[in-house]
Amino acid sequence: MTQKTWFITGASKGFGKAWATAALDRGDRVAATARTLSDLDDLVQRFGDAVLPLQLDVTDRAADTAAVDRAHAHFGRLDVIVNNAGYGHFGFVEEITEEEARAQLETNLFGALWVTQAALPHLRAQGSGHIIQVSSIGGISAFPLVGIYHASKWALEGLSQSLAQEVAGFGIHVTLVEPGAFSTDWSGPSSRRSAELPDYAELHAQVLESRRSRTADPGSPESSAAALLRIVDADQPPLRAFFGASPLAIAERDYASRLENWRAWQPVALLAQGGEG
User: Fold this and answer.
1) In the annotation, is 135 catalytic?
2) For 99, which of 21, 43, 207, 228 is 20 to 30 Å away at the CA?
3) Where are the domains of the chain?
4) pTM exceeding 0.70
5) How many angstroms separate the CA atoms of 140 and 136, rounded?
6) What fold characterizes domain 5-245?
7) Which residue of the set 87, 149, 224, 246 is catalytic?
8) Active-site annotation holder among 12, 87, 153, 246
């Protein structure tokens, strides 16, 4: 198998570290980014020159471009771009401050956009490449308490579906990875939380209990690496791929409900166009 060169954001833990390790284990090369450079020391110590450690805050557009360009100059090409950096924000919609909303979108959406834009000239020039956008089951469905997180991932989904159509002619693939519950820092130390409003206290307790039952058996990031490598090595990779057992059932229920709703209200759709309602 041809050696691949990866650029992975958020490579110091969770999916990013697991996927970087799997790629390096099989002989690929990885430009690994993290907000704190020392968090990448163990990868460097284990894999040596196959790793290019880069300090990066993905919300800094100029830094994103510089990091991608440096990785390309260092390795001579880039084959797989993984936009993994992100975090979960917990708070009901009324509780979210402007600063919190903008910070969530700056990391989860704009960070991925800036890295993607920085990588595309290199991928187009070589006539190949694969962009992996780390979304979530929360990119196609929605639950209470994480509305601004959903907003960031739903936006990433739409952006990436358009992108896939725009770059296919250059030999570039785009895949949205949509994990269910995995034991990452997404809801732990890496997450942020809004100040709670007293009027929502009872609902907070209900939602948290529901979430605990829904995520009671999380997968491990390490176990997901084989799935990602299968996607990256495919001749015709998918636009979307669930990771974990639970997302498909959630999607089937959600989309069945949407179709039922749209069909029931189709007379109103026709009325809006001047037809019979």
Assistant:
1) yes
2) 207
3) 5-245, 250-277
4) yes
5) 8
6) Rossmann fold (3.40.50)
7) 149
8) 153
